TrEMBL record, chains A, B:
SUPFAM superfamilies noted in UniProt: Homeodomain-like, Tetracyclin repressor-like, C-terminal domain
Pfam families: TetR_C_6, TetR_N
Domain HTH tetR-type: 11-71
Species in which this protein is naturally found: Halopelagius fulvigenes
GO molecular function: DNA binding
Protein name in the entry: TetR/AcrR family transcriptional regulator
Keyword Repressor part of the UniProt annotation: yes
DNA-binding feature ranges: 34-53
Keywords: DNA-binding, Repressor, Transcription, Transcription regulation
Length: 205, 205
């Protein structure tokens, strides 16, 4: 085990490499990215990248985990909120991103969606995305189940509903990024309300 | 105008180049593709590619239009079918692809989704996709409007509904390809039925 001081230094360094990777990816895109582009975004010598990571592929996998962690960690929901309120909060966070200053939700999502599509050729990235997708989907499925238990939602296949909402969010983000439909998240929010969540409420009769 | 014989030859040649491009893209992916890879997939000399297309970018734009045309042209719907039947047929075609032998729906969709995500960096491809997306979305929106006029669907924002269904289909295909969820189209079909279309039917009371 490394002494506490060293461990902190290493964490800071890795964070600096991750942020440099993010800036380099935003500029050059995944397929054209070279290790030296990442080095150009850092104040430290680029030897530290090679010290910490075993090539571009290793670095990219770690980077994917890094942005997924930021994304998931950003969802803050009151555990005592009513199910519909929690559902709304989770959908909003995934659609619009956290309101952190400098978080750059859409810049990060641009990289995220590029790596997502690229995962069709990449077993390791596919696994990282699958784990992440499962967590996002489950968090929505669980709220639907809570609502059913509390009698505020009607009985549905909660996993199927969770998957549908997760897919719709993903598509709206992808469409904004790929096709430039800037109103896609807002419009999708309304569609989810009107066409999906509306039918979820338990019939009061 | 070229004499009829020549025109046919040229169309055949372009078709041969398009199919060679498709095979090369399936093997190498978009970002790694070189013109010579396409030449390797052809029986003709690769000079004909340079004769017909002004570089990789021009060829890729034309190829994108080619697979979109195949995709859209494959949707055959009886214009006198009841709205719900037509809606089902359109959703099925987009989700599962046409049943042409050798069409290779998923191989083509793999390329389609790769180019779609890449369009975030490419104004011309973005425009081609936007036109295509608009046609797909409108075809669904129009069926919803027909159903409303005939009184079998309740009054909704038909364009919003058309967009939602288009997004859900796109997400399901993308998830199957990127994450290997082979049951995504079938599961999504059920989710569309249960959670979106069910609420579309006009209340018989």
């Amino acid at each position: 085990m490394s002494p506490p001081g060293e461990e902190t230094a290493s964490t800071d360094t890795q964070e600096a490499i991750m942020e440099a990777t993010f800036r380099a990816l935003s500029k050059h895109g995944y397929s054209e990215l070279r290790m030296r582009d990442i080095g150009d975004e850092m104040e430290m010598t680029r030897q530290v990248i090679h010290y910490h990571f075993d090539g571009k592929y290793d670095l990219m996998s770690r980077f994917l985990e890094y942005i997924i962690q930021q994304y998931e960690g950003s969802v803050e929901v009151d555990p005592d909120a009513p199910p519909r309120e929690e559902l709304d909060a989770r959908i909003d966070q995934c659609l619009f991103g956290p309101e952190f200053e400098d978080f750059g939700h859409w810049d990060r999502m641009k990289v995220y969606h590029e790596l997502f599509t690229h995962a069709q050729n990449d077993e390791q990235h596919r696994e990282i995305f699958n784990d992440h997708y499962e967590r996002i989907r489950s968090s929505i499925t669980e709220v639907v189940e809570d609502g059913m238990e509390q009698g505020v939602f009607r009985e549905v296949d909660a996993a199927r509903m969770g998957q549908l909402i997760t897919d719709v969010i993903h598509a709206a983000r992808g469409r904004k990024l790929a096709l430039g439909h800037d109103d896609a998240p807002q419009e999708t929010r309304k569609a989810i309300d009107e066409f999906i969540l509306e039918s979820l409420h338990a019939d009061p009769r």
